[in-house]
């Protein structure tokens, strides 16, 4: 490999006025890279210099141009923001969850950006949660953490861990004020309501308490920002005395830590994209050495849950869609089958309660829950009435219970919380997310369509539209896609989406390969050297919707984020004529450059998802053949809006910045916009009102692109 870069010029872009009338003209600074005998020139690689004032000035110039280019949408943006705000019950309260002697919940208050974490004492034997009413504080409320107070004076705020000790007397929490997902860990004594002197900087998500609450386990990252160390901290002692309990040397692996629901074991898991290794520590003996459940074997994935005398093992050993087994707590060894592998039924997780197991699964593109009584081989699957829906467990911190809480939603049903009696099978609706302004699910319809991919594979599509929306090709349509990491884009409800549906826009989700909607094989057929299936599936979905008279290419807008942003960039090159516009949020559009650089955050851990182009010439050539940035051509591109964040550590800001610059250089007739959040991370703005404003901006752009800007 060889790489050279000339000195950066002093003048590199121009903006004529405070309200520009043309995009910023970016100076090209050719830099070469050579791998596998292939030399590539990257004229915009200098934009990766985050500390360079010229880079910041360029991003700000792009923001100024985006603001000017969308100035005509200001009123529509404000209208959509007010619609989102007006449909949301701003002062609200989540359904309290019982743990020990308390009910825990989160409150939101009108006019405040962040949630307030609270609890109230529970009466002995109390099963039903307190009524949430109009969202006002519950009698006897104790405020554990107020995000609004923590965020005061900050442009960004995110909560990392929020972890109450088993006795309920201590709270571990962590905060991030930059958006780079590096948190300061603190401890609060809930008996006296004071934050202790314990403070650990630069921690990652995840924590676990010992059984007596004297010891806290947490995670830090390496220079590539990979979570690689689990530490033990004794409350009251300085962080400099903390001890590394486990360090993961293999750069492909991440580590995590948690306390089992039974509060009997600390679980330390190390996972690459395709391999797992789990260790446990007796929570009553926090200084003990971690014990390995099974040594790692390349390609073997497993997770561990404690249940009485056994560890439950969810695994893929000779089981592509996973099986459930168990082994002895006292002497972990052979795995005894509990639920055998069944092709087409993907087992995703198992939750153990004292007298029951609940298995989360998916089948035929839909999620499900299976209940198994302890000591019995009998089981039943919960049933739900709608043809499209998403269901999963919600919280459930209590181990000794016969009642579990589930979350349920569909494209037309707002987020709903049910308590399910595992013995009687009765379900009680505890709360459905309020949608103000007279929302009626009967005014909307959801549908399932199927596209046929180039290789004959049938690809599911979930759709929702307001009743009466024409099916003659005249309706605008927004098509969303992701398709990576076996992450499924299941049907869900969105208040913000109503601003599209009520203006006649059809909303659709393309469940493309690379996701997990149809099982493990669906994922395997959309990664590594089959990654292009993700892109061709999406194009097939777009064309199928046109063929079914849902829309036309002139009114079809595509949207995706992160790895879904890679999908957006790829289909822009693959079939630009199929779309009127593309929204790419925090888009992974320069994947080859990033995956070639092992010094970048998370690169090595990604090799089992995309392949290793450093070592494998075939992977290099394959990635180069689909990389959006590498394949920008002299094409008639649709309108493109790229949204990114300066402090994103997962998809670095310079990928979309370079992409937009190259699009303008190679295909200058197109309309391309770049919007950078200068104080946020991968998830965008942190406060809920700021997030609504961002969504209103994107929605207005979509409506304009689809020809509905006048639909105020």
The helical percent reads: 10-25%
Identify the overall geometry. Answer: globular
The counted number of beta strands is 39
The average pLDDT score comes to: 94
Helix count from the secondary structure assignment: 12
Q: Report Rg.
A: 26 Å
Give start-end ranges of low-pLDDT stretches. Answer: 1-17
Largest sheet, in brief, is: 8 strands, mixed
Q: Going across the major beta sheet, what is the strand order? A: 32-33-35-34-36-37-38-39
Spatial gap, N to C terminus: 55 Å
Label the structural class.
alpha+beta
Structural descriptors:
seven-stranded antiparallel beta sheet; 712 residues; globular; alpha+beta; single chain; 12 helices
Protein described:
- With 712 residues, the protein is of the alpha+beta class.
- The protein is globular.
- An 8-stranded mixed β-sheet has the order 32-33-35-34-36-37-38-39, sandwiched between helices. A 7-stranded antiparallel β-sheet has the order 9-10-11-12-13-14-15, with no helix packed on it.
- The N terminus is likely disordered.
- It contains 12 helices and 39 strands.
- Strand 12 and strand 13 form a beta hairpin.
- The N and C termini lie far apart (55 Å).
- Helix 2 packs across helix 12 and helix 6 packs across helix 7.
């Amino acid at each position: 490999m060889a790489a050279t870069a000339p000195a950066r010029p002093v003048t590199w872009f121009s903006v004529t006025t405070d309200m520009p009338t043309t995009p910023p003209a970016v100076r090209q600074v050719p830099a070469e890279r050579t791998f596998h005998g292939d030399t590539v020139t990257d004229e915009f690689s200098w934009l990766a210099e985050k500390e360079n004032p010229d880079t910041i000035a360029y991003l700000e110039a792009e923001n100024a141009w985006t603001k000017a280019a969308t100035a005509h949408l200001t009123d529509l943006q404000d209208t959509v923001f007010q619609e989102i705000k007006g449909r949301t019950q701003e002062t609200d309260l989540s359904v309290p969850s019982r743990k020990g002697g308390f009910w825990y919940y989160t409150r939101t208050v009108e006019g405040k950006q962040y949630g307030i974490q609270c609890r109230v004492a529970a009466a002995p034997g109390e099963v039903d949660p307190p009524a949430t009413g109009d969202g006002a504080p519950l009698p006897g409320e104790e405020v554990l953490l107020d995000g609004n107070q923590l965020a005061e004076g900050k442009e960004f705020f995110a909560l990392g861990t929020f972890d109450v000790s088993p006795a309920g007397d201590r709270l571990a929490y962590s905060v991030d004020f930059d958006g780079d997902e590096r948190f300061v860990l603190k401890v609060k004594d809930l008996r006296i309501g004071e934050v202790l002197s314990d403070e650990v900087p630069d921690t990652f998500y995840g924590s676990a308490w010992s059984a007596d609450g004297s010891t806290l386990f947490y995670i830090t990252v390496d220079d590539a920002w990979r979570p690689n160390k689990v530490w033990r901290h004794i409350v009251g002692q300085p962080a400099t005395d903390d001890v590394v309990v486990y360090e993961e040397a293999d750069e492909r692996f991440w580590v995590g830590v948690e306390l089992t629901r039974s509060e009997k074991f600390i679980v330390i898991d190390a996972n690459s994209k395709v391999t797992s290794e789990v260790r446990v520590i007796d929570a009553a003996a926090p200084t003990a050495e971690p014990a390995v459940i099974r040594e790692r074997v390349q390609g073997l994935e497993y997770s561990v849950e404690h249940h009485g005398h056994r560890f439950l093992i969810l695994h893929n050993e000779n089981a592509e869609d996973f099986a459930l087994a168990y082994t002895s707590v006292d002497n972990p060894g052979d795995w005894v089958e509990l639920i055998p592998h069944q092709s087409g039924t993907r087992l995703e997780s198992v939750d153990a309660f004292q007298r029951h197991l609940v298995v989360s699964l998916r089948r035929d593109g839909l999620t499900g829950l299976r209940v198994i009584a302890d000591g019995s081989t009998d089981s039943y699957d919960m049933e739900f009435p709608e043809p499209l829906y998403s269901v999963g467990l919600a919280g459930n911190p209590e181990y000794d219970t016969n009642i579990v809480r589930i979350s349920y939603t569909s494209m037309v049903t707002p987020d709903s919380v049910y308590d399910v009696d595992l013995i009687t099978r009765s379900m009680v609706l505890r709360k459905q997310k309020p949608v103000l302004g007279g929302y009626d699910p009967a005014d909307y319809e959801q549908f399932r369509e199927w596209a046929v991919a180039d290789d004959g594979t049938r690809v599911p599509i979930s759709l929702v539209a307001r009743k009466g929306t024409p099916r003659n090709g005249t309706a605008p349509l927004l098509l969303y896609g992701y398709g990576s990491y076996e992450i499924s884009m299941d049907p869900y409800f969105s208040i913000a989406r109503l601003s599209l549906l009520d203006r006649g826009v059809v909303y659709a989700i393309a469940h493309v390969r690379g996701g997990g909607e149809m099982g493990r094989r669906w994922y395997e057929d959309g990664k590594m050297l089959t990654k292009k299936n993700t892109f061709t599936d999406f194009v097939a979905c777009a064309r199928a919707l046109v063929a079914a008279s849902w829309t036309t290419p002139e009114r079809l807008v595509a949207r995706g984020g992160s790895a879904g942003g890679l999908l957006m960039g790829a289909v822009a090159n693959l079939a630009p004529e199929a779309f009127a516009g593309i929204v790419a949020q925090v888009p992974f559009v320069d994947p080859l450059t990033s995956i070639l650089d092992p010094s970048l955050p998370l690169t090595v851990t990604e090799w089992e998802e995309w392949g290793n182009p450093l070592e494998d010439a075939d992977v290099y050539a394959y990635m180069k053949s689909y990389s959006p940035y590498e394949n920008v051509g002299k094409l008639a591109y649709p309108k493109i809006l790229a949204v990114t964040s300066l402090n994103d550590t997962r998809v670095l800001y310079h990928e979309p910045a370079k992409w937009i610059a190259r699009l303008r250089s190679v295909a200058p007739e197109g309309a391309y916009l770049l919007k950078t959040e200068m104080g946020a991370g991968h998830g965008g703005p942190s406060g809920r009102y700021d997030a609504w404003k961002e969504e209103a901006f994107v929605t207005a752009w979509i409506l304009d692109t689809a020809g509905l800007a006048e639909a105020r």
